[in-house]
Amino acid sequence: MGLQLVTRAEDWAGRTALSDAEGTYGYDELLEASARGASKLLAGMSDLAEARVAFMVEPSFRYVRTQWAIWRAGGVAVPLCLTHPAPELEYVLDTTTPTAVVASSPYVELLAPLAAARGIPLISDVELEDEPASLPEVGASRRAMILFTSGTTGRPKGVVTTHANIEAQIASLVEAWEWFGEDRILLTLPLHHVHGIVNVIGCALWSGAWCEMYPSFDPVQVVDRIATGDLTLYMAVPTIYHRLITHLEDADAEDRSLFRSGAEVLRLMVSGSAALPVSVLERWRDLTGHTLLERYGMTEIGMGLSNPYRGERIAGSVGTPLPGVEVRLVDEEDRPIADGNSGEIQVRGPTVFLEYWARPEATEEAFRDDGWFRTGDTAIVDGGRYRILGRSSVDILKSGGEKISALEIEDVLLRHEAVGEAAVVGIEDEEWGQRVVAVVVATKPVQPKELSSWLRASLAPHKIPKEFHFTDSLPRNPLGKTVKPDVVQFVTEQASSVIES
Ligand code: MLC
Ligand code: AMP
Q1: pLDDT at res. 376
Q2: What is the pLDDT of residue 410?
Q3: Which CATH number fits domain 177-291: 3.40.50.300, 3.40.50.10330, 3.40.50.980, 3.40.30.10?
Q4: Taking the model in full, what pTM does it have?
Q5: Which residues pair with 297 in a beta bridge?
Q6: How far apart are CA 34 and CA 40, in angstroms?
Q7: Structural domain boundaries in the chain
Q8: Exposure pattern of 51-67 as b/e (b: 16+ CB <10 Å)?
Q9: Is 213 exposed, middle or buried (0-12, 13-18, 19+ CB in 10 A)?
Q10: Strands in 242-395 per DSSP E
Q11: For residue 169, what are the β-bridge partners?
Q12: How far does residue 135's CA lie from ligand 1's centre (Å)?
């Protein structure tokens, strides 16, 4: 049968698949270039047999060519976050032990010494081509991708999905949101998360549609592009919609009206990866006439719940289970609960991931015996529709759609010589959803800037607290554990004397 994305692409020959700053590319070009890329990765072997290949390439045709080349050679794609500093990249390399790293030019300098120190060959993405060789037959049950996600304990975990998982995730969304060949979508999301990889590019290429790729999000470019009136779809996180609203509200009436005419041509605008504030939904509706379709997902499950494509979208609700996805709410003993009560969301079905990479205990803990995955999110069913109430762990934050572990930041802070105690919390924030804030008990004088630089050397920029507060002691329970809700209250009360990092 082969990989469905690839076999379907053969049917789309003659159509445009992708465009980026460098050009426009047909499905036949993608097939040809990824076959040549796969031959390069195979280097004479018949099958990569699930060897990992890490890659650090900006959103572009070259990214998709690399991803497909890895898949068609039988490898497991490990996309790297473009803003990760060396220690985060080293962690991913050491965890997944790739046989090759592919990098585009801006990332070669950073990656070359890391790859060399581990004896991993580094291939420039523009050199990812060789004379076409025969490619292996890759079954759907084979591992396809590893995406890293923060957890409640330890360092980020690698979420392994098979080709069958990815195909099920795509097929579910294509059916629910009625993707078709004439669709044209703008990508402004990073490509180390399911939102960009599956919901945008995966669905577009599955459907014979056209995906336009921007290397990063810029509100001016997005507003101008939507205003031209030939896109049909757009998908983003609430922070992006918030920024677009701010930009549009500052624009003059003529530009706003031009934008509105272009936006009216789109058939669907989707928000997800974090709770969509009702105020954002309403302001966006006023500016565009669109009621954003909010859906709920997770790296481990793809998308689980969605408001309807046709039918009423309810503000504050994430709708009902998507096609092929089983969802239930359970109490603390994993007993299904009656409607009207809150419980943990559990998900089952072909979209659910295979395992955490090299973490069998974490995998076992994440599943019930009968295959239900425990999301850690709490919800309530209200009139048949799900409403997300929050997460069971206060140590998992969501900022701008990025999942962040408070404990991971605390661990690095505590290694600083001036930090005696540290607590990291998420403070409700209009732009970011949650703003990452650190509260520190210092053992000697230290400036927030010093702590910020200390963290920046080890962690991705989105994990760096936006504020640091200092205190004499942290609120603790009788067992010595920090009481995070009290830390949040402390920060809120201190708001007037904030020390910016
Ligand atoms: C960037 N910064 C962030 C941040 N992103 N800080 C907190 N949270 C974030 N998410 C930092 C930058 O490093 C910079 O710090 C400062 O904030 C301002 O940067 P910016 O240039 O204004 O930010 P920008 O680069 O424009 O990024 C904002 C963003 C981006 C919203 C466009 O975060 C983004 O693309 N988010 C989407 C992530 C995503 O795809 N999530 C899906 C996960 S999958 P400094 O100090 O360095 O200057 C999932 C499942 C599902 O959740 O349901 O979809
Ligand atoms: P990630 O691990 O980065 O894939 O993030 C998944 C998490 O994002 C989920 O477990 C939820 O906590 C959160 N999330 C995704 N979509 C929504 C939504 N529409 N509303 C609230 N939370 C969401």
Answers
A1: 96
A2: 97
A3: 3.40.50.980
A4: 0.97
A5: 303
A6: 10
A7: 4-139, 177-291, 396-500
A8: bbbbbbbbbbbbbbbbb
A9: buried
A10: 268-271, 293-298, 302-306, 320-321, 326-330, 342-348, 355-356, 373-382, 385-391
A11: none
A12: 37
pLDDT score of 138: 98
CA separation for the pair 476, 153 (Å, rounded) = 19
CA distances in angstroms from 350 to 54, 136, 347, 397, 483, listed in the order given: 25, 24, 10, 27, 38
Question: What is the number of alpha carbons within 13 Å of residue 242 lying toward its C-beta?
Answer: 18
Q: 4-139 has which CATH code?
A: 3.40.50.980
71 CA distance to ligand 1 middle (Å): 28
The answer to whether the beta carbons of residues 422 and 413 sit under 8 Å apart is: yes
Return the amino acid letter for 345: I
User: What distance in angstroms lies between residue 175's CA and the mean position of ligand 1's atoms?
Assistant: 29
In the 3-class helix/strand/coil scheme, how is 448-480 assigned residue by residue?
Answer: HHHHHHHHHCCCCHHHCCCEEEECCCCCECCCC
Show the ligand 1 pocket: residues with CB < 6 angstroms: 189-190, 193-196, 217, 237, 239-240, 272-273, 297-299, 399-402, 432, 461-462, 464
With vertex at residue 94, the alpha carbon angle to CA 92 and CA 96, rounded to the nearest 5 degrees, is 65
- pLDDT of 148 reads 98
Mean pLDDT by 10 residues, the chain (501 residues): 92 97 98 98 98 98 98 98 98 98 98 98 98 96 97 89 98 98 98 98 98 98 97 98 97 96 97 98 97 98 98 97 98 90 97 98 94 97 94 94 97 98 97 98 98 98 98 96 97 70 52
From the list 340, 332, 370, the residue with the least C-alpha distance to 352 is 370
pLDDT at 500: 53
How many Å lie between the centroid of ligand 2 and the Cα of residue 334? 21
Question: Ligand 2 pocket: which of 192, 398, 434 to mutate (most atoms <8 Å of CB)?
Answer: 398
* Rounded-to-integer distance, Cα 261 and Cα 258, Å: 5
Which among 237, 244, 140 has a CA at the least distance from the CA of 193?
237
Q: Do 396-500 and 177-291 have the same topology in CATH?
A: no
